[in-house]
Design goal:
Blueprint lengths: L5 E6 L6 H12 L3 E3 L1 H13 L7 H9 L8 H4 L2 H11 L2 H15 L4 E6 L2 H5 L5 E6 L2 H14 L6 H17 L12 E4 L5 H16 L1
Parallel strand pairs: 1-3, 1-4, 2-3, 4-5
Length: about 210
């Protein structure tokens, strides 16, 4: 289903379901999709591969500058280790500044785009026609992440994952540049008690209302 010039900005904390919803909405409307979190994960991955510190600003900026949207190793980047590392890199203002233009260029296509992350509605696409802030309880998000990791054959200790989720929430919300928070005109969607289809239906209703 193609529509003219529709930008959908989806933000939210880790494991809230925003990525799944973004992919489903992009497929439904025939729009390109960008998981912006992968940009920070790929930057962190490049640093780790070179044996560099995650808080090495100069190296992190260079790594971000060299990213290509076409060569991500999705499975590796979605590991628990890379998620924690990405949160550290994303807190560096210099790295965020380097990646802003890349994300905005992606969103500037003629037909529009769907982007998900943590500062899409507030920083990257403040003029997006539709903004959704997806959330869920920390416990529910930790449970989802544990199931996701276990499904990939990775170690999944619920208590450790819950601690990581809460730590990432605190870091993402407290950073000085582009903190995790809903845009003033975003619609909040709590997926704690929704399955995938229920969440998609609710998100679709939000988008349709925004288009109208």
């Amino acid at each position: 289903m193609f529509v003219s010039r529709l930008v959908i900005a989806i933000d939210g904390p880790a494991a809230s379901g925003k990525g799944t919803l973004a992919r489903r909405l992009a497929a439904h409307y025939g729009l390109p999709h960008l998981d912006t979190g992968l940009l920070y994960r790929a930057t962190a991955c490049a640093l780790l591969d070179e044996g560099l510190r995650l808080d090495d600003i100069e190296a992190a900026v260079a790594a971000a500058r060299g990213l290509s949207l076409t060569d991500f190793d999705d499975q590796r980047l979605r590991s628990r280790e890379m998620g924690e590392s990405a949160s550290i890199v994303a807190a560096l203002p210099e790295v965020r500044a380097e990646l802003v233009d890349l994300q905005r260029r992606f969103a500037a296509t003629d037909e529009g785009a769907v982007l998900d992350g943590r500062d899409i509605g507030t920083v990257i696409c403040p003029d997006a026609r539709v903004k959704i802030f997806v959330t869920a309880s920390a416990e529910k998000r930790a449970q989802r992440r544990a199931l996701e990791l276990a499904g990939r054959g990775e170690k999944a200790d619920y208590q450790n994952i819950l601690a990581d989720v809460k730590k990432r929430d605190e870091r993402d919300s407290a950073r000085s540049v582009a903190p995790l928070k809903p845009a003033d005109d975003a619609v909040t969607l709590d997926t704690s008690e929704l399955d995938i289809e229920g969440a998609f239906g609710a998100a679709l209703a939000i988008v349709e209302k925004g288009r109208a």
